[in-house]
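Structure ticket #2291
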Amino acid sequence: MKKAIRSKEAFPDIPPIRYEGPDSKNPLAFKWYNPDEIVEGKTMKEHLRFSVVYWHTMRGVGSDMFGVGTWVRPWEDGTNSLQMALKRVPVLFEFCQKLGAPFYAFHDRDVAPEGRNLAETNKNLDRVVKELKKLQNDTGIGLLWGTACLFAHPRYMHGAATSCNADAFAYAAAQVKKAIEVTHELNGAGYVFWGGREGYTTLLNTDMKRELDHLGAFLHMAVDWKKQIGFKGQFYIEPKPKEPTKHQYDSDAAACLNFLRQYDLLDDFKLNLETNHATLAGHTMQHELEVAGSAGALGSIDANTGDLLLGWDTDQFPTDIYLTTQIMLTVLKYGGFTTGGTNFDAKVRRESFEPVDLFHAHIGGMDAFARGLKIAAKIRADGRLAEFVRQRYASWDTGIGRQIERGEVGFVELEKYALKMGEVRTNQSGRQEMLENLINEFI
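Resolution: structure written out below.
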C-alpha cells in the first residue's frame, strides 16, 4: 500500500472517492466506475487507465477571450515561480490519490517555469522533476505521457519544427530533447507530439514542402534520441485541424498517418486522439479511432467533448454515454490500451470555480467511460452487431470476393465474370435504423 500525501492537504474536506453503485446520490462517489470490476478479462482500472492533466487541472485559471480567470485555487500564490511550481506537485498527487486516478500527464512548461535562458529553464525543470519522481514513488501514481509546450512562447509564433526561423527549430529541438529525457526519468509510458503552431495562416508566405520536410527531420531526430537514451515509451502524434493556426499539418488521423508513411515514421508513432479535435475536423471520434485502429496506430485518447454549437476547442468533460460507448466499442475492437490510456484533457466551466468542481467533473467523466466500457462489452458479448456486419460482407468470404481480396484476379477476369453474371444481385439493406435501435437496447 502506497502512502498518502502527508503535507497540508489542499482538499481537506474531500474524502477519497469510492464506488457506491448506481443508486448512490452522493455527488462525491462513483456510480459506475468500480476499478476492480472485471470486464472482458481485465479490471476497469486496467482497461481505462485514467489520467489527470497538469495543464487544465493544475494550471488553468478559468479565463477566456472575454475575461480573466475565475477559478479559486487556495494553494496558488499568484506567481509563476519555481517555489510555486514545487507547491503544486503535492496538490496534484493528493488530487489523483483521492480521485483514484493512476496516471497524470504534463507539458514541460506546465510543471516548471521558464528561466532567463535555456540552461536555467532546464535547471528549473530538473528541480520539479525530482519532486515529481519522489511523489510518484511514494504514491504509485505514474506518468501516462509527457510533452513539450512548443506553441505558447513568442519564439514559436511561426511554429517550432516548421518555423521559417532555423533558430526556433534548434531551440525546439533542445526543448524536446530535454522533455523526452525527463519523461524517461519519470518512467513515462509515452511521449506526445502536438503541433500547436505547426501549420500556416496563409499560403502566401508558406513553403509547405520545406516545412513538412523539416517536421519529418525533426521527428526522426526525436526517434534517434529516444533510442540513444533507451526510452521505451510509445511516441504519439495528436491530430488537430485548426486553432490556433488556419491549417495545422496534423489535421486529422488520416493526415497524420499519411505524413508518417511519407516520412517513413509509421513504425515509430501511434496516434493520441481527442474527441473535440475530431469534431473540429468534421469527424466523429469513432471515425478517427477506426482510421487509426485499421492502420495499427491507435495508441491513446484525450477524453473530452466539445459543444457542437461553438466553433472552438471547449474541452468539456465527457458525459455522453453514446459517445463513450462508441469509443469503447472501437478501443476494445482493436485490443484496448497498452501504453496509452484515457487522459482527461478537459476543464471545468468558467462558472464552476470551486476546487470541489474538479472532483465532480472527473467523477462524471470516469463514470461515463465506465458505463461506456460496460455497455460496449455487453454489445460485443451479445454478438448481433458483429454478426450483422459479418453477414453484410459475406460475399467477400467466398467465390469472386475471396479471389479479389487474395489478389488472384484482375480486370480481365472480373470482366469475364461480370459478362457471365449479368446484373448485380440485389444488395442487402444496411438496416441503419434497426442497428441504432439495437444500441438503444443496451443504453
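Closing remark: The radius of gyration is 24 Å.
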